[in-house]
Amino acid sequence: MPQAIDSLIHAAWVAPVEPAGVLLAGHAVAVDGGRILALLPSEEARAAYAPRREWSLGEHLLIPGLVNAHGHAAMTLLRGLADDLPLMTWLQEHIWPAEGRHASDEFVHDGSLLACAEMLRAGITCFNDMYFFPEATARAALRAGMRASLGIIAIDFPSAYATDAASYLHKGLAVRDAYHGDELLTFCLAPHAPYTVGDEALGRIAVLAGELDIPVHTHLHETADEIAQGHASHGVRPLERLRRLGLVGPRLIAVHAVHLEGHEMDLLAREGASVVHCPASNLKLASGVAPVAALRARGVNVALGTDGAASNNRLDLLAEMRLAGLVAKGTGGDPSLLGADELLRMATLDGAKALGLDADIGSLLPGKRADIAAVELSSLETLPCYDPVSDLVYAAGREHVTHAWVGGEPRLEARRLTGLDEGELRTKAAWWRQRIRNPQ
Fold this sequence. Notes:
This protein has 440 residues and is α/β, with parallel strands linked by helices. Helix content is 39%, strand content 24%. The protein contains 16 helices and 16 strands. Strand 10 (252-256), helix 9 (262-271) and strand 11 (274-277) form a beta-alpha-beta unit.
C-alpha cells in the first residue's frame, strides 16, 4: 500500500549538493510535513508513495533553494537611483539622503515585498537582510512565504527608525522576541560596518552574540579607503579591531572582504568565520575583487550574496554564481578555480552554513526542509545539455527558473508567484518611484 504524503516532485535531474558532485537522473523528491522524506528513482517513488500533489518536470534540474547571504531588500525601491559612482559618494550624496527622506515602515515593507517577488522568481528561497524597520521586512517575508534571516541593525547615527546604536539594538531584539519560534524567520546581529559603529556598541554586540548564539552580519573591508580610514582612527585595520573586540569567530559573517592580507585570511580560517562574496556589487562600485579562491583554499566558508538592488541592480544569484566563477578564473589565471559544482554549493549550502541554517536547508537530504528550486534546461539557449550543473551556472538565467518551494509549499509555480499579486507590486513600485523622484 503506497504511503500517503504531501507531494512528489519528479525531474530529469536532481543536484542535491550533498554529497558533493552527485547528480541524480530521473529521480523524484518526496516531501511530507514540509521536509524531504526521500530522494529515489521516479518509478520507485510512484510505487512507494501516494502524493496529494505531484509535479512532473521532465526537462528540469532540481536544486536546493538558493540562499542569498547578503542584501538590503527594502533598497529595491532605490534600484537605479544613483549609478556609476564610488561607494562613499553613492552612499553619502545619494542613498543616505534618500533613506533619510523616505525610510519608514511602509517603505521597508513595500520594498521588501518587491524584493521577495524578484528573489522567488530567481529561485532564491532564503535571504539574509540588513536594514531599518526589520519588523516590516519580517511581515513581507511571511506574506511571500520566504525564509529570512533578519538583521538586528546597529549604527551610530540616527534615522527614522532609531536614535543611536543602543536604541537600534533594543528595537531589533524586541522584533526578534515577537517572532520567536516562527519557522521561516531567524535573526542576526547586524552592525552596519566598523566605520559606522563605535567600540562600545560592537563590544555589546559581541556579548549578545554569545548569549543568544546568533550570527553577526557586517560589512567588512569593502574598500581600500574604509581600511585606511579605520587604521587612521583606531590604529589597526578594521578586522583586527573586530578581533580585539571579540567579534571574530564562527558567528561572524564578513560581507565583501575584498581587501584582505594573507594573515587576515588565515585569521578568518582559524576562527571559523564566514565571508559573503558579492561580485556584481563590488565590480559595479569599483570596490575590487575579493580573494575568494585564496579564502576557500584556506578552508574559509564563502557564500554568495547579491547586496541590495540599489548597488547591483538585480537580485539574481544565478548571475552571481556565473560572475563569481568568471572573475576568480580571470584574476587567478587558472580556469579550474571555482568549478560549477563549487559555485552551486556557495549559493546554497555555504550560505546556509554562514547563517547557521545548514542543518535545515542548503542541500536536498532526507530530513531537511523542502526548500527547492526547479530550473528548465530545454530552452534553445541551454541546449545541448551535457552537464546540467554546468548549464545552470554558465548558460541558464533566472528566466529559466519555473518553480520554487519553501518548506514544501509552492511559492513559484510555472513562473507565476502563488502568494503575491504581481499587479499590486507594480502599482506599489510606480507609486514609490513617483514619490522618490519628486520629494515634497
